[in-house]
Write a structure and sequence with these properties.
The protein is mainly alpha-helical and 210 residues long. The protein is built from ten helices and no strands. α3 runs antiparallel to α5, α5 packs antiparallel against α8 and α6 crosses α7. The chain starts with a helix and ends with a helix. The structure holds protoporphyrin IX containing FE (HEM). The site of protoporphyrin IX containing FE (HEM) has 24 residues, from α2, α3, α5 and α8.
């Protein structure tokens, strides 16, 4: 992998955020800047979740193992955008009034679903470092990180519920289709690996021929 690849991807991931900050300082976020900020950070969270889910299929299909090195960074960017999303909502919609935020989470189901996705994403972000992987053990770490599918589903439900009020599902269906294809690929890959006849290991072959 080219040494500039990682810093380049890092900068690319920051472009949407930089664009929002620039828009905020130059009056470029439309008539309702708070709504624009909340919605676009929500969109970017869902996009990063889709991008993270696409890494393994792309790595396998394109036979480019180096892609795996970007997964952690992309996952942490999903977390970064959801934190900005949550902070934008807490600040611009709720004036950082914690009791009011708690009431709103309990009262509006679509907020509760989004908040649950955020809570579930937190341990994944917190255990994305090598020390955590070692401490948990690879197997437990992998099981924990399968939560990303639940998070993708909850993010989608949150989006669907929010758009249900407006009866506008076009974008929701696009994300649903992308996530369904990515999940479908994993299931297909898992099933075909299970079905494939196991080739005996070299050690077994030696024993058999002896
Ligand atoms: C993984 C977690 C989350 C994802 C993937 C996500 C994603 C989204 C998406 C895609 C939108 C719609 C943007 C659009 O209309 O273009 C949205 C809107 C919104 N989300 Fe989230 N979100 C998450 C977590 C949260 C959390 C934790 C909260 C607050 C506790 C929250 C509050 C909101 C609000 C207030 C809106 C805007 C509603 C409106 O304008 O009517 N979301 N979110």
């Amino acid at each position: 992998m080219h040494p500039a690849a990682k810093p380049l991807v890092f900068v690319l991931c920051l472009v949407p955020f930089a664009w929002l900050v620039y828009g905020a300082f130059t009056d470029g976020l439309g008539a309702n800047p708070a709504e624009y900020l909340i919605r676009s950070t929500g969109d970017w969270t869902l996009r990063f979740i889709c991008i993270v889910l696409a890494v393994t299929p792309l790595r396998v299909i394109a036979k480019t193992n180096a892609l795996a090195r970007f997964r952690r960074m992309l996952g942490l960017f999903a977390y970064f955008y959801v934190v900005v999303h949550l902070l934008s909502y807490s600040w611009f919609d709720m004036g950082f009034d914690i009791p009011e935020i708690a009431k709103d989470i309990a009262k509006r189901p679509f907020i509760l679903v989004g908040f649950t996705a955020f809570v579930l994403l937190t341990p994944l972000a917190a255990t994305s470092f090598n020390r955590a992987i070692k401490a948990l053990g690879a197997k437990r770490w992998q099981t924990l990180h399968k939560l990303v599918y639940v998070i993708a589903g909850l993010g989608l439900l949150h989006f669907f519920w929010m758009r249900a009020g407006k009866n506008d599902f076009a974008e929701v269906f696009v994300y649903a289709a992308i996530i369904a294809v990515l999940l479908g690929w994993r299931i297909w890959n898992f099933v075909s690996k299970k079905r494939a006849p196991q080739r005996p290991s070299p050690a077994t072959r030696v024993q058999r021929s002896a």
